[in-house]
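Molecular record:
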Amino acid sequence: MSFLTVTVLAACSNEPSEQPDTLVNLATVQSGPRVQAEELNGAIAREPRNTTLLARRASLLLAAGQPQAALRDVAAALEIDNSDGGLYFLQARGLRGLGELPAALAAARQAAQRGFSGPELPLLVGETQLASRNYTAALDNLDRTLRLDPDQSAALFYKGLAYAAIGDTSTAIQYLHDALARDPRQPEILHQLAFLLNARRVPGQAARFAALGMRLDTTSGLLKYDYGRQLELQGHSDSALWYYRRALVLDSTVYRADYRLGLAAARERKPAALISHFQRALRRNPRLPQARALLAEALESQNRLPEALVQYRRLVAENPGNQHWTYKVWKTADRVQSQLPDSLRTTPRYYYRRPPAPERVLPISPLPPIRPEAG
């Protein structure tokens, strides 16, 4: 099963069967979608108006991860024959690969209007609506896919993600189990299951799925994170930190691993490590609990006041009316200004001037006695 790319949680699958080692001379391997697409170049050069050949090459280019090249072939084919629904379906796939979601949905509608049918179309539309966070439309199209193909594991997988997104994790887990039963060697399903089970504080079950996934995909940072998280939930913090670090080595975009490592650094009073991890994590997810506050205070403790001021201002924007963060902005801004030379200050510097000494008042001299005048 080939899953369409979607920015969501990830998953894993069953233990691979034992197979004997086979030595392969990689220099002699000439296969794969890209090579197959190149093999069509000569045929298309001889028959440039053959839409079947153009569509075939476009499909192979999509499989090779080259959506822009595929769309060029689709556009050339549509100039020859704009009544073929299959060409619009390929166009929708290419646009989805480029992340152009509204355009992909429009091309999918054109495909349906021109008679393209089959479970692939509602599956594509459902996944695209899921990526657009239109969960009701996504579930409707995925249900349509399953009516046409009840064993479509991708549709079950995406339904699980949709239910997880709307907060119905029990239903999400059930659909992910159903998807795994039909495709037991899909690491993404296993990651999603492990992630959701950890979120529901069932680390024992999460560990099983994460371990299976790591056996299938040894390069997945997400699965390493899942396994580390279940260890942390079961009280094995030191082992969990090792898996979080390994997750980042494999995939630097696993911001949750940075977040957990940052929290550990806060507990161990290691501000330099905290700053490094939280800065990366907040670039991926600006709303991580406690992360920005801890980062701002760590930057202030390291006398990195301009950076701390940026974070305090973000905290004020995120928590309007919070007196603590408002005070921190005022205080840190004043400290930043005090470190600048006069030519760079944005506010005037007020020097302390000793007030003049009060004028001493002489004591009142007694009046001379009045002498009576001689008569």
Summary: DSSP finds 19 helices and no strands in the chain. Confidence is low (pLDDT under 50) at residues 1-30. Residues 16 and 216 are 7 Å apart (CA to CA). The two ends are 138 Å apart (CA to CA).
